[in-house]
C-alpha cells in the first residue's frame, strides 16, 4: 500500500488549515495566466480537470460567485510525494479547537458540510467523486465579506490576440474550460491517422474585426441572458482556436428534448467561412431545436473533444441516449471518448448524399445506386441485408471499392436494420424523402462572413422560437381534422401536437393497405403475426412485403419488424392493424410519449434556488427579483389572454409597492 494521507485528523480541524497553501500558493501564477471563470456552474460528480490547481481554481471561483470561502481540508500523497486525492471544504467547515487562552477568539465556524472530493484517475486527470452543495449558514455573494481564498481572484485578465490583421489590436476576455467526462479519458490522438479532410490548423481563420465581433456577441448575449454560457479555447500563442456557446433556452430545451442529438458538422467539413458545429435536437412538433453551437479551427480529435466536453459541461454531465454524426473517423473517436455510454450512429442521409460523389464514375452506376438504396431501406432483418449486400458487390464487382468497404465495416452504425432497438424521435430518416433542415438555412452560406453570421444568429433563433410558438397555438386552439373514424387517431388527437398527429395519421391510413394478416405462431399470450403490405420500391414498381408483428395480450405489448416506433416515436400501421384485429380499442399507455404531448407546459427558464438569499442586501434583492420576473414574462407572452392578465397583475403589484413605499 503506497498511498498515505498527510491529514489524519477529522475534516474541519484547525490542523487541516495548514494545508491551505496547496491551493493558495499554487494559484498565484495560475490565475494570472488564465483569468476568471464566467458564471461558474455548480460542481458535479464526474467533472474532470487537468490539474489539482484547476480543481481548486474552479471551486474557488464558484465559491466567490456564491459568497463563501474555500479551505483545503485534506490532501493525500503517495510515497512518491505525488498527490492523488483531495478534499476542498467551505471555510466554515468543522470547528476550531478549544483554546486555553484567557480571551479566546469567538467561534466563526459552523461545521458546514459543503465540500467536494476529487482524485487522480488513471488517465492523469482529476475527477470530482463526491459533492455536497448545501451550507448550514447564510451565504451571500454581495455581502462584501473578504475570504482568504479569494485574494488572488481578480476581475479577469485580457491578452492581445495576434490574429490575421496586424493593423488591428484585438482583445477578448479569456475563460477557462471546466471539463466533464462521464468515463474520463482526456488523452486525444492527434497524429492524423483519422483522416477526413483533416485541417490541422491551430487557430481560427479570422478576418479583421472578427475577434471584436465575437467579444461583442458574447457581451450582447450575456446582457440579454444572465445564464448565457460560453467558453473560449486558446492555443499556446493566445490565439482563438475553438469557441462554444449556448443560451439558457437551449440549456432548458435539452432537459425536454435531449434524448437524441444530431451533431451537425456540415459547415466545418464543407469549408464554410464560418466553421460552425451545431448540437441539434427535435421538439414536440418535430421541429429542429438548437442545443448549442461552436466554432472549430479544424477537424481534429483535439478540437472535437474540447467542444464536446464544453457542451457536456453546460448540460451538467448528462449525455444524450443517442448521438448522430457524419461518417468521420475523427468524430467517431471523439464521441467514443467523451460520450462512451451513448449510442453513436452515423447519419444515413449524409451517407446516401455522398453516393453520387463516391460512386458516380463506376460502370453501371445507376444500377449500383438502385441496388444500394433497396438493400439499405428495404431490408427488414440483418440476414436479408447481408445477403442483398453480398449480391450487390458480387454482381457489380465492387467488393474492393474502399468506400463500399468502409460502409460495410460501419454498417451497425447507419443501416436501419441494425438500429431498431435505439430510440431516435424522428431524427434518423428511414425514407429517402425525409430530410432534416438546418436551423441556419437561409442565414448562412459558404461565403457568409463571421460578423454577419453573429449579427443574424439571434434572428435565426427568434424565427425558430416563433415557429414553435405558432405550432403550440395551432395545437392548443384548433381542432385537428381527423382523417379516419379510427379511435386510435381520435385518442391521440386529445394528447399529441398537430404535426405529430399528421404523421401518425399516415400510419392510420396505411392500415388499409395492409391486406393480409396471418398468425404464424402462438406461445401462451405471445402471438406472432405476418402482415402483408404493398410497398412502393421506386417510382414505377410496387411489391408486397411481409412484416412480422409480435403481440403479447397480457402485457399489451406490440412490436413490429419495421421498427417504426423507435425510429419515429409512434406505432406503425402493422402494429395498429394487429391491435385492431385483437379488439384493442386504445393505444396502450407505454406507446404514448410525453415528448409529443401538447398539454405539458414547457417553460424555457432555468430553475434557480432561493437558498442563501439575503433580503437585507439590495443587490441580492435585485438579482433575485430580476430572475423571478423573467419567469413571469415567459408565461405572459404565451397568449393574448396571458399577456393581458400579466399586465393587469403587474399594475396591481406596482400599486401595492407604492402603498408600502408611502408607509415607509
TrEMBL record:
Origin: domain of life: Eukaryota
Membrane-spanning parts: none
GO cellular component, one term: nucleus
GO biological process, alphabetically ordered: regulation of DNA-templated transcription
A GO term, aspect molecular function: zinc ion binding
PROSITE patterns linked: ZF_SWIM
Ranges for domain SWIM-type: 547-583
InterPro entries in the cross-refs: FAR1_DNA_bnd_dom, FHY3/FAR1, MULE_transposase_dom, Znf_PMZ, Znf_SWIM
Keywords: Metal-binding, Nucleus, Zinc, Zinc-finger
Localization annotation: Nucleus
Principal cellular location given in the protein's record: nucleus
Function statement: Putative transcription activator involved in regulating light control of development.
Family affiliation: Belongs to the FHY3/FAR1 family.
Protein name in UniProt: Protein FAR1-RELATED SEQUENCE
